[in-house]
């Protein structure tokens, strides 16, 4: 579910997705997926967004649409819970952070050899 309230306020305040991504300590592509509703925004991130945009949480918050997988067969289909989205998001964020640390380590190694 696209976060229209969040997008509208962000644009009204003349912030780019990059500005907001920096405030959340994530990359712009990850933030873009959050704003478009592809990736869940955590409670902590909602609070950071509210503070960064200087607006009450209720002005930007939109509930996550629950996702359910259905199966045409008579077998019971597994459901996808918000916790599953959170785990995927956490893994993506950790991978992004690892990549950032590797870049920083490489830069520091080059600097230390000078």
Automatic annotation (TrEMBL):
One of its GO terms (molecular function) is DNA binding. PROSITE patterns: HTH_CROC1 (PS50943). It holds the Pfam family HTH_3. InterPro entries: Cro/C1-type_HTH, Lambda_DNA-bd_dom_sf. It comes from the Bacteria. Residues 6-60 form the HTH cro/C1-type domain. SUPFAM superfamilies: lambda repressor-like DNA-binding domains (SSF47413). This is Transcriptional regulator.
